[in-house]
Amino acid sequence: MAANAEKAEESQERIGFVEAFKVREIRALAVSRGASRLAMSTVSYGTMVYLATQGGTQFQISLVSAATYLSAVLFGIQGGMLADSISKRMAIFGGYVAIALMYLLLPFFAGQSISSLLVVMFLSSAVMQVVSPSLKSAVALVSKPKDVAVVATSVTIASSIAAAAGSSFLAPILIKTVGLDPLMYLAAVIMMYGAWATLRLPKTEIGEKFSVAVKQIGFREHMFSLRRTAGWFNHNRRTGALILVGAIAVSMYEAFTTLIPVYVRDVLKSDPTNAVYIFAPAGIGFLVGMYFTPTLIDTIGARKLAVGSVFIMSVSMVLFGLIEVIAPFVAPFSPLRVLGWMFDVHIPKVVLAASAIALPANFGSTAAGSAIVAYINQKVPLAQQGATFGLQEVQENVATLVLVMTLGAASGIVGPKIVFIVSPMFAFAMMCWLIVYSYRVSGQDQITMREALDELVDTSHDDEP
Description:
Layout: H1 2-12, H2 17-22, H3 24-53, H4 58-85, H5 88-110, H6 114-142, H7 148-177, H8 180-198, H9 210-217, H10 226-235, H11 237-266, H12 276-279, H13 282-300, H14 302-321, H15 323-330, H16 337-343, H17 349-379, H18 382-414, H19 416-441, H20 449-456
């Protein structure tokens, strides 16, 4: 009896954050994913800041950013299927090396034109369609089933902090001091460091040869199809609805990142490189997410956390649009006030307010991403996780592509403030329409947009796959 009780108690014990990072394989996965996010966010945001400082329009900036999402839409499903077929360790390593070579060679041969930036963004994103689902699936390789939530959150938060560092500090500082080309070269070095860390992942998984796996996939047959996506949703309603919630979170965050350089220039009346003042406090939101997300997943469930986090993000986006109205009330809560006191630096109230709003916005983004990865790791069989994460990438990037291009065009007409206010409504409307469409193509009874919204945010059966 005592032995059984001890065994039961041991089975319920969960690894903590500190203990997780002491495990060699988990630490390697966190470093690997963090390096890639640091490099790619530095390049992505650096190109946007570079174009903004050169007087580029919001549409031009959105166009360069959209190249990333277009590639994901075209190749996301095939990339997920490849991730299921080949060794995840080698998929990640090979992808990192390929992207590093792009960062090194393409700017050297093509220069800093918009067309060359489009090529870099498109091709690097295409490679990431294999790497990203491999990284997410690798969580199940380096952790025990009971530790998946903690490990997934630890890796996600570590990578999110790295991404925030790239967009918050490296990108604006490097663009302001040394320019775009040195930024690309540094990103290549960081990506190679991530490739080196990947070699420490477990070698237990044996996959197909890459050439054989590519022939088996059938890229043309698995190109993105709205009808096939709707059909998949009908057969995987619970997981599908959560993926759509994640698509809202990702698309809003990416739209926010794309709009910020021009927002800082035109609304806050500041140098676009000073966006660092808005992104700097993001690390606090990530740290809060890292600490509380596993507990929240265990307490309220992954689905409730994801839905709640998206609503937090939505409110934050609206507040960015109302920045001039709320600045006197929100600015006093900004962590940046400490810098003003310490270095006697004057920071406008609108900048302080924007930096304060960035905290809940980034917490919402991080918590939603961690919750969805943990849910899929726990509920979906490992052999199907790559394809599921690949489909997730497609959904997120379709939503982001539409949102970024639509809001980018609208920003040039009505201004970024109005765009921030309407962006959550537009994002939710897109996902609700997809649910309505899925009912239509399956021949089921038609539902209204309100009923689709209820299905999207339904958290009554959080434990169901």
